[in-house]
Design a protein that fits this description.
By secondary structure, the chain is an alpha+beta fold. It has 15 helices and nine strands. The protein folds into three domains: 56 residues, Phosphorylase Kinase, domain 1 (2-Layer Sandwich); 204 residues, Orthogonal Bundle (Transferase(Phosphotransferase), domain 1); 68 residues, no CATH class. The protein has a four-stranded antiparallel β-sheet, with no helix packed on it. A three-stranded antiparallel β-sheet has the order 5-7-8. Strand 1 and strand 2 form a beta hairpin. Helix 2 packs antiparallel against helix 4, helix 4 runs antiparallel to helix 7 and helix 13 crosses helix 14. The longest helix has 71 residues. About 2% of the residues have low confidence. Keywords: ATP-binding, Cell cycle, Cell division, Kinase, Mitosis, Nucleotide-binding, Serine/threonine-protein kinase, Transferase. It catalyses: L-seryl-[protein] + ATP = O-phospho-L-seryl-[protein] + ADP + H(+); L-threonyl-[protein] + ATP = O-phospho-L-threonyl-[protein] + ADP + H(+). This is cyclin-dependent kinase.
Amino acid sequence: MEATQASFQKVEKIGEGTYGVVYKARNKRTGQLVALKKIRLDALLDVIHSQKKLYMVFEYLNQDLKKYMDSCQAGELPLSLVKNYLFQLLQGVSFCHSHRVIHRDLKPQNLLINEAGAIKLADFGLARAFGVPLRTYTHEVVTLWYRAPEILLGCRYYSTPVDIWSIGCIFAEMMTRKALFAGDSEIDQLFQIFRTLGTPTEVTWPGVTQLPDYKGSFPQWPRKEMKDIVPNLDRDGRDLLTQLLLYDPSKRISAKAALNHQHAMPKAINWSKLYELKQEPHETPTAFVERLRATARRYTNIDPEKPEEAVQLAPIFIGNSAPDIRKKLQKLEGAESRDLGELLQVAWIAFNNRGEEEQNKIRERENEKEQKEKRREIECEERKKKREMEREEREKKREVERRKRDRGRDAMLSAALQRALFRRRALQPNQCAYCRALGHWKRECPKNRSGPKPAAITPHHE
């Protein structure tokens, strides 16, 4: 089925760069988490589609090499793990270079790690194709700490060796757990390199004095020994690192040649064969580890019986374990660099607790159901009490209103009765029935204007 933008629901923005924005998204149909990259097409003149938006859907990986190194316990990363990561990094860069692509922004933050411990190159926003003759490029590329000296000195005709220099910096950082050259400006970055590898000359780097930003007044620092720079690296490793960090780009080792270096080759792993291994639902952790070891013996040059080499299988054991076991293993600090024996103990605990966990889940569901029933009963009782209280309030209001009406009616009846009694009360002789005054009758009452007027007495003339 053809995927459209409507097929994915954005969860959150996880990154933004010069050429695009990356979102964490979920496939609405399958529920799979993906990385959705929206490409910026600011100079676009016309498109066929109705909306001028281009989205690219990638596999979602939530950890990079920088986060992984920061999350590991204090101390060195296992040498075997560093070799594995270096080998994978060289494989990826060699593939890019063989297809005439320069990444130009290699750094630990752009090396993503999946659950099985595979490293994948990310953020090709600054990547460029190269050809013969070399094109001119901007020198505002590559994060400062991993930027090659030819770029720092203003060279605009550079090629794949800039990626090789970045790999050397990453290799040293994995060994020492700190950046090899941590400058805070371009000139400080240059001086950091010069203090470590010595100030370059025409002898060590032919043509360096002709670069645009080279100054004859640069301080002259001597070169340090590689064993002092990375003391925990063996002789073969120091030799490879030296070739990765050569000043002269034309003499710097290529990614393909580095893969054949003695430091990288003996520990090369056919990752595809190991990725195919998945723990079956009812397979014990020990049986799964034995399958991993057997596959490693067949398709790799490592010896699974040696703890320092077997640790290379730890990330695959964690990532390809059953989901419930994988969750337990991933909670361990620095799990990917731990011994297989330690991981196996945790895996067995999770495996043995499966039945108990299922029972706990059933009990939790039953308890939750009982709690819901209790809450429902309590809510019903509360609603019933509320209705009773409302009914009682209405009855009280009706009673108050009824009493008020009764009092008003009684008052009206009392007034009418008093008036009736007042009217019917017996009159005294010669008492007016209208005004109750004595001395005249009602028809003669001066206040009773509606009654007959008394006849005027006219004088009688004889």
